[in-house]
Amino acid sequence: MENRTSRLLRYPGDMEAESYLYTVGPLAEQFLLSIKNEGKIKAAYCKNCGRLFLPVRSFCTFCGKEVNELREIDQEGVVESFSKVKLDSFGKELKEPFYLAYIKFRNVEGGLLHKLGEVKEPKIGMKVKPVFKESKERIGSLEDILYFRPI
Hints:
Number of strands: 10
Helix content: under 10%
Number of domains: 1
Strand content: 35-45%
């Protein structure tokens, strides 16, 4: 008989002492599967207060009620802030620096932190859209979004 947890979307990782599998939970799994299967970013929707929010959570951060629904959102986002990344996580200089941006979406509380691409000099307020990997290459991860490009 199959273990129920073996069907959950999970990711391997390493800590100093041991390996682990991190389960994202039902709503975040739906979020990641919408990226994988549909090539769309969706936001959590609270039926109680009517708010959409990212990152998705199982409980509304505004009213505290349980959240179990995602809604499709406009895929166009706006750069709220950005930073040029020149060093890797070990402090070594990257061969190709990149921009990391906080991206907000219309009528959505919160946003996503992700890479920018196809841009020489980003600007606050710049409109962007996600560029996804080819559908056959997607695994159900935020890395299925290659970057956000200016529009």
